[in-house]
Amino acid sequence: MLQIGADLRRRGHDVRMLSGADYCDAIRDAGLEAIALPTAAVAHPPDLSFPRGLPHLLRNWLTGRADIRSVFIAPLLAQHKALRAALGGDPVDAVLVDIAFVGAIPLLLGDDARPPVLVCGVGPLMLSSADSPPFGVGWQPRTFLTYRMMNRAVHRVLFADVQRELNRTLRAAAPRSLPVFVTDWPLLADRLLQLTVPEFEYPRRDLAETVVFTGPVLPGPAQTPRLPDWWNDLDGARAVVLVTQGTWDNSDLDQLIGPTVRALADQDCLVIATTGRQAALGREVQAGNARVVDYVPYSLLMPYVDVMITNGGYGGVHYALANGVPLIVAGDTADKPEIAARVAYTGAGIDLKTGKPSEGAIAAAVRTVLNTPEYRAAARRLSKNIAASHALDTIAETLGQAADTTG
User: Fold this and answer.
1) Both 204 and 242 in a single domain?
2) Is 57 part of a structural domain of the chain?
3) What are the coiled-coil residue ranges (predicted)?
4) Domain containing 360: what range?
């Protein structure tokens, strides 16, 4: 969202950005006006703890309920209050929110005049469809099935109490209940800007006309930083495996980074582990062929990478695909099972269907991807689709059209 705001500013627009206090300095550095959200308006990942051996579907159901409560319900009223306060100042021509900023829902349900609202799909498309399984289960669609009744059962039975809880919360700020299921709320907006290419989404015959595929918003080339001492090891002599847990779900590095380092310790490859924060792996998970770093710009590293192992962050997955790098995805929180399923569906990688894969599963997946050229071929096809997209131009154009239409 910061990149989008900065680009709009470069195009001559005045941009005010609501965000968590931790990001306000970066917002100001980008030349934007920063408005800090109160703590209650900032969504946090739920604290999940499940017994071992819990069935996969039951785990997904419990995770989905926890995610909706922590991301969509808990911060809603505080977000809406902050948004209303921001709209009470200078006139606003348009409101751009990410898909988790549910504080915009009361604005969309209200009867008062409002500026156009555009939602940025910073995760996989979560709108319900007769052509795809319920969002969150991490299933790939089958062309001979219709999922209308399955979606209805999930919405009206399995998540009915969560939907009622959301509507009770809405009563304090909106004149009516949400007329769609919670994950379909972007349908109320003037546009849904989906930050991917159509080829990375499931085909849908019932896709809303308000959905615009923009392509991903990816970081630009990095300023030349001080490279790690081991950078010359990227000499092409052996396969390079990148493993990361991103920045959202990286408190326990032994979920994915540790097992990967151990699994590949005796393999003829170079393992690059990016922790996303200042952290160190214990000696028991270190290996001679592993290089651990807090952060390294993907724009510099990705051209050397042969396969990326990730827990499924949307941005990191798209950066790999933009570079034609195949993926191995191990994610079971938030929207990560859905991202993993899309990677497998497109043929660009392997979905391990767990957030804590075994060392054996990781090693086998790496061998499969490195020895099966079809994975890289699929990733390269997607890289061409991404290269043909122009996300920031499309966003600016769509924003201007929406403002002109309602202005």
Assistant:
1) no
2) yes
3) none
4) 231-387
Query: Greatest CA separation found in the chain?
Result: 64
Nearest to 219 by CA among 301, 126, 334: 301
Distance separating alpha carbons of residues 35 and 24, to the nearest angstrom: 7
* DSSP conformation class of 285: G
Instruction: Give strand ranges (E) for 106-245.
Output: 117-121, 191-194, 211-213, 239-244
Rounded CA-CA distance 105/110 in Å is 9
Q: Is 26 helix (H, G, I), strand (E, B) or coil?
A: helix
Q: How far is CA 371 from CA 72, 262, 301, 363, 376, in A?
A: 42, 20, 22, 12, 10
Q: Are residues 199 and 272 in the same domain?
A: no
Q: How far apart are CA 22 and CA 109, in angstroms?
A: 30
Into how many domains does the chain fold? 2
The CATH number given to whatever domain includes residue 237 is 3.40.50.2000
**Residue 326 within a domain:** yes
Per-residue pLDDT of the chain (407 residues; tens, 9 = 90+): 999 999 999 999 999 999 999 999 999 999 999 999 999 999 887 877 776 677 877 888 888 899 999 999 999 999 999 999 999 888 899 999 999 999 999 999 999 999 999 999 999 999 999 999 999 889 999 988 999 999 999 999 999 999 999 999 999 999 999 999 999 999 999 999 999 999 999 999 999 999 999 999 998 776 767 788 899 999 999 999 999 987 656 567 888 999 999 999 999 999 999 986 555 555 445 568 999 888 888 889 999 999 999 999 999 999 999 999 999 999 888 899 999 999 999 999 999 999 899 999 999 999 999 999 999 999 999 999 999 999 999 999 999 999 887 65
Q: Give the CB-side neighbour count of residue 112, counting CA atoms within 13 A.
A: 9
- Do 173 and 316 share a structural domain? no
Asked if 201 and 267 sit in the same domain, the reply is no
Q: The tokens of 380 are what?
A: 């390269």
Domain stops at, among 213, 242, 270: 213
Domain boundary among 178, 213, 248: 213
Residues 243 and 204 grouped into a single domain = no
Nearest to 327 by CA among 342, 267, 295, 335: 342
| Contact by Cβ (8 Å): 20, 75 | no
| DSSP line for 165-192 | HHHHHHTTT-SS--SS-GGGGGGGSSEE
Nearest residue to 100 (alpha-carbon basis) of 72, 124, 137: 72
Tokens of residue 5, six digits = 């705001």
